[in-house]
Design a protein that fits this description.
This protein has helices at about 10-30, 45-55, 105-115; strands at about 5-10, 35-40, 60-70, 75-80, 95-100, 120-130, 145-150, 155, 170-175. It contains three helices and nine strands, in the order βαβαβββαββββ. Helix 2 links the parallel strand 2 and strand 3 (about 60-70). Strands 4-3-2-5-6-7 form a six-stranded mixed beta sheet. It has a three-stranded antiparallel beta sheet with strand order 1-9-8. It has a single domain, classed as Rossmann fold. The protein binds inosinic acid (IMP) and magnesium ion. The site of magnesium ion (MG) has 6 residues, from strand 5.
Length: about 180
């Protein structure tokens, strides 16, 4: 079934306001410390760019890639952590940044990987969280969430379908068409 982008679910202004508020909250939480932000490519790029500009204060940025979706269906997680980050992770606070929390499997895999690198503390921030009946172990709950959304496939503001629609400035659901 072909897909087309449906109406706007969260517009650019609402995203900007919420991301600025999240940035201020994170800046507050990490005041006086220098966390490592571990960003999950590629979906988080727009969110990350706006979040860090709303978060004054020292930090390091590192990247991992994770891919799980085959089209609109979740599949097996493929996680690629580069061969050691440029910065030291051991003993430091880490904030994992991702676009969307669905089953939580991706964030759990990334958190596990950074804990194995010796991170002192690992917290997570996501732009979107899907509300559904799936049970998430409490230790996998995201620490900061931009917006809770219905359990449907969304695109835009970094989120893609087969590589498309990441550059939309807003978040839209997919329609069928
Ligand atoms: P999880 O591992 O089930 O939590 O899935 C999270 C990952 O799947 C995210 O990092 C996204 O890359 C991708 N994903 C989940 N839901 C959507 C969606 O609605 N649109 C686009 N990507 C999604
Ligand atoms: Mg992702």
């Amino acid at each position: 079934m072909p897909h087309k982008v449906g109406p706007i679910l969260i517009d650019a202004e609402a995203i900007a306001r919420r991301v600025r508020a999240l940035g201020a909250e994170l800046a507050d939480t990490y005041a006086g410390r220098e966390p490592v932000l571990v960003a999950v490519m590629k979906g988080c790029v727009l969110f990350l760019a706006d979040l860090v500009r709303a978060w004054p204060g020292p930090m390091d940025l590192e990247f991992v890639t994770a891919a799980s979706y085959q089209g609109t269906e979740p599949g097996e997680i493929r996680l690629a952590v580069p061969d050691g980050f440029a910065c030291r992770v051991a003993g430091r606070p880490v904030v994992v940044v991702d676009d969307i929390f669905d089953t939580g499997a991706t964030l759990a895999a990334v958190c596990r990987a950074v804990r194995e690198m010796g991170a002192a503390e690992v917290r997570t921030v996501v732009l979107l969280r899907k509300r559904h009946l799936g049970v998430v172990p409490p230790e996998c709950e995201p620490d900061w969430v931009g917006f809770e959304i219905e359990d449907r496939f969304v695109v835009g503001y970094g989120l893609d379908l087969g590589g498309r629609y990441r550059n939309l400035p807003h978040v839209s659901a997919l329609g069928e068409g």
